[in-house]
# Entry
Amino acid sequence: MGIIGRTIKWTLNAIPRTALQRVAGWAVPALGLLYAGKGRECPICGSKRRKFLPYGYGPVREDALCPRCLSLERHRLLWHYLVHSPEQERFKSLPTILHIAPEVCLMKQLSQ
# Structure
């Protein structure tokens, strides 16, 4: 785990979650500038980075957080399923989708 991973782990465990949520909208994309490149592409927002940011409260997972839309692996997997599953046509034909406690990254996509 690199210095950024250790810093992220300390930040997640030391600073209250409400404070983190207030600054995440500008701080994470600013940190993402360090990862500019074309190694990974987020299926939700289309952002291209050398790799994703590390993330985790316990063990830090490398390559986990998209710095543009703040999606994690599970969010990208869910989006991939919604877009590429055999039931994809059923999702397109529904007028509304109820998502309990929607993630911000998916809320933007589902609202379209």
DSSP finds five helices and four strands in the chain. Strands lie at 36-41, 48-49, 53-55, 61-65. The radius of gyration is 15 Å. The mean pLDDT is 83.
